[in-house]
């Protein structure tokens, strides 16, 4: 008998990661529904001379376009495996993944870098990276934090998401950041009855990402056992019926 359950999966993250996630969702036999609730806007930033930087610290792949090829020879530390993969694809030659979160990235930098060895460049979104920069400065590092992009909330719920939810065609929604979760929650409540989520699983990258989603009446709210796309997609592949 055919499986009666819906197979749609909302991809709420913005580009450039959304297409790669959609391809992996499709490979699992689901139907990806592109539903970005944030737009990434590049911001002008004055970056230091790469020769004076001992390492670049990247907490999101969205910061990579701002760096350009002149930083590709500088050692780069990424918050997780997906960001590290994007850095390698962008041409960075010496990339190490912290594998988890900002706290793990902090520990990795302290282990691999020297406070007197040159500046640490931390390109981030507006309002992000402050705790990491503060912690490393307290450890004696010179941290150059630069705001290179903004994650701008959309004004309306993407029509593809609204249509699929109204038709009860969605099995799950993927959330990669707290900002995305907050934006989705606000837009959903403004556009549709919350009851449209009763048969939908919310899959969150971490507890911090899950927190803004908790007020909504999901079928289930599940959190990946580690903050990686692989772990998030494992939840999708294992519906725990």
How would you describe the overall organization of this protein?
It is a single chain. The chain is built from nine helices and eleven strands. By secondary structure, it is of the alpha/beta class. The protein has two domains: 8-37 and 154-237, Rossmann fold (3-Layer(aba) Sandwich); 42-152, Rossmann fold. Helix 7 links the parallel strand 9 and strand 10 (201-204). It starts with 7 loop residues before the first strand and ends with a helix.
Short description:
With 241 residues, the protein is α/β, with parallel strands linked by helices. It contains nine helices and eleven strands.
- What number is the mean pLDDT? 92
Provide the CATH architecture of the largest domain.
3-Layer(aba) Sandwich
Poorly predicted runs: none
Structural class: alpha/beta
Count helical runs.
9
Shape: elongated
Can you count the beta strands? Answer: 11
| Whole-number count of domains | 2
Q: Which strand order do you get reading across the main beta sheet?
A: 3-8-7-4-5-6
CATH class categorisation of the largest domain = Alpha Beta
Describe the oligomeric state of these chains in a short phrase. Answer: single chain
Proportion in helices: 25-40%
C-alpha-based Rg, rounded: 19 Å
**N- and C-termini, Cα separation:** 17 Å
Element-level helix/strand string: EHEEEHEHEHEHEHEHEHEH
The CATH topology of the largest domain: Rossmann fold
Major sheet details: 6 strands, mixed
- β-strand percent reads 15-25%
């Amino acid at each position: 008998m055919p499986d009666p359950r819906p197979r749609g999966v909302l991809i709420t993250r913005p580009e450039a990661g959304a297409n790669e996630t959609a391809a992996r969702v499709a490979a699992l036999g689901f139907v990806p529904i592109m539903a970005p609730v944030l737009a990434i806007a590049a911001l002008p930033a004055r970056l230091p001379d790469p020769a004076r930087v001992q390492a670049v610290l990247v907490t999101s792949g969205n910061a990579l376009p701002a760096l350009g090829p002149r930083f590709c020879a500088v050692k780069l530390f990424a918050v997780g495996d997906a960001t590290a993969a994007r850095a390698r694809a962008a041409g960075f030659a010496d990339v190490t993944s912290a594998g988890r979160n900002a706290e793990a990235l902090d520990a990795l930098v302290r282990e691999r870098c020297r406070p007197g060895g040159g500046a640490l460049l931390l390109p981030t979104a507006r309002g992000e990276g402050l705790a990491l920069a503060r912690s490393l400065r307290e450890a004696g590092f010179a941290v150059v934090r630069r705001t290179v992009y903004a994650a701008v909330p959309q004004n309306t719920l993407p029509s593809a998401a609204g249509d699929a939810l109204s038709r009860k065609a969605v099995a799950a929604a993927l959330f990669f950041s707290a900002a995305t979760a907050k934006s989705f929650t606000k837009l959903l409540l403004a556009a549709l009855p919350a009851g449209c989520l009763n048969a939908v699983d919310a899959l969150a990258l971490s507890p911090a990402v899950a927190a803004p989603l908790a007020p909504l009446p999901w079928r289930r709210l599940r959190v990946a056992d580690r903050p990686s796309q692989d772990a998030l997609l494992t939840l999708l592949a294992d519906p725990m019926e």
